[in-house]
Write a structure and sequence with these properties.
The chain has 386 residues and is mainly beta. It is 11% helix and 54% strand. The protein has one domain: AttH-like domain (AttH-like fold, Beta Barrel), CATH 2.40.370. The longest helix is centred in the N-terminal third of the chain and has 20 residues.
Length: 386
């Protein structure tokens, strides 16, 4: 009965999705070769490199983002708004490094650091970026691709974080377009390069105390890496964006639901299955349940039921529980939780989940800028609030 109902829903959502694709301004693909700095000089243009990892025991989640322009920065958003108002073409650059370390569903360490443009450098012909004293670069050896991250950040109360971490690509670089139709290279939509949906992550994290004492933490787990970019300011283009990833024993599933401001807020939904060095692209139907509001009033579903066709062609479903709110604001949420994969011919599987929800409209509200600024450090100075 359940699968008969699912078959009908899938026929309907596939028809709807094909209609939406013709006006979609969201391009998804997977390529290490394109994981470089594009140096887009358009007003408000941004790109970021995102890395996350979950430890083998499930206790620790680690997230690092390198941003050419910090999309949440009041300085960046004020500058873009002023340039647009004056019809000016000289872009601002506000690079930033954001690092989050969660343990048992709670914040263990957080640092968001914005830098001036002279502290930023990146490579246009190979994946590499340095912001302040932190950096990443791609290293290839014996036919394997490794992303090496070196972190050196000042924390609150005189502490420091020093880390050396390696993202070894297990499933990725599929070097293919993930939409039905490939936009022209000059198209102005958002680009999501799902570089490596699954990586083996290992390395050492060191916390340095003001007195010089050190605590070393050896990390081993499963990770993910992607790269996002757009030539347009985020607050003017994105209405809402929900995405997440779950690493199952034999596959990784990544999903997104995106609505652009210029598309009448029509949602476009996809689900990707990385398995056995292949990436299967599925149209998907999202059903939200158990709606809640976070501390700052942002409304979100605690449960998602995502219906799609399995890589075998059979109907399937991903049940998502966004269990722990790790980060909360007026415009952005990050969750840790669980996902369950249900198929007709296989036993139900369970995996840990990292997901995010973004509704950036509030970034344009100047009344909130003072509060956002209190969470942002500047170069060698830590933030006022943790």
């Amino acid at each position: 009965m359940w699968f008969a109902e699912l078959e009908g829903n899938l026929r309907r959502v596939n028809s709807d999705s094909n209609e939406h694709n013709r006006s979609e301004d969201f391009r998804a693909f997977s390529s290490i070769n394109d994981d470089v700095w594009h140096n887009d000089r358009a007003t408000g243009a941004y790109e970021w490199w995102y890395f996350d990892a979950t430890s083998d025991d499930g206790r620790d989640v680690f997230v690092v983002i390198f941003l050419t322009n910090f999309i949440f920065s009041p300085r960046y958003n004020r500058s873009v708004k002023g340039l647009c108002a004056d019809n000016a073409s000289t872009p601002a650059r506000f690079p930033a490094v954001s690092i989050w370390w969660y343990r048992d569903g709670k914040v263990f360490l957080r640092t968001i650091k914005e830098f001036s443009s002279e502290h930023f450098s990146a490579n246009t012909d190979a994946p590499a970026c340095r912001i302040g004293n932190s950096s990443f670069h791609l290293h290839r050896s014996n036919g394997e691709a490794h992303y090496r991250l070196q972190l050196d950040e000042t924390l609150r109360h005189g502490r420091k974080l020093q880390a050396s971490l390696d993202w070894l690509v297990s499933e990725g670089d599929f070097d293919r377009e993930l939409n039905d139709a490939r936009p022209a290279p000059s198209s102005s939509g958002h680009e999501w390069n799902m570089v490596a949906p699954k990586c083996h992550v290992s390395g050492t994290l060191i916390l340095v105390e003001p007195n010089g004492g050190k605590q070393a933490h050896e990390f081993c787990g499963t990770g993910y890496h992607d790269h996002n970019r757009d030539g347009r300011p985020l607050v003017q283009t994105v209405a809402a964006w929900q995405w997440g990833r779950a690493h199952f024993a034999d596959r990784t599933i990544v999903f997104y639901r995106y609505a652009g401001r210029d598309s009448g807020q029509t949602h476009v939904s996809r689900l990707f299955i990385a398995h056995d060095n292949k990436l299967v692209v599925c149209d998907a139907q999202f059903v939200e349940a158990d709606m809640r509001r976070d501390l700052f009033g942002l409304r979100y579903p605690r449960m998602l039921h995502i219906r799609f066709r399995h890589e075998t062609g059979a109907p399937a479903a991903l049940r998502v529980e966004q269990r722990h709110v790790l980060e909360s604001s007026f415009f952005y949420l990050r969750f840790a939780g669980k996902a369950w994969l249900e198929t007709k011919d296989e036993k139900e599987q369970q995996a840990s989940l990292v997901s995010e929800y973004l509704a950036p409209r509030a970034l344009g509200w100047r009344s909130l800028h003072w509060l956002i600024n209190m969470r942002i450090g500047r170069e060698n100075r830590s933030s006022f609030l943790p």
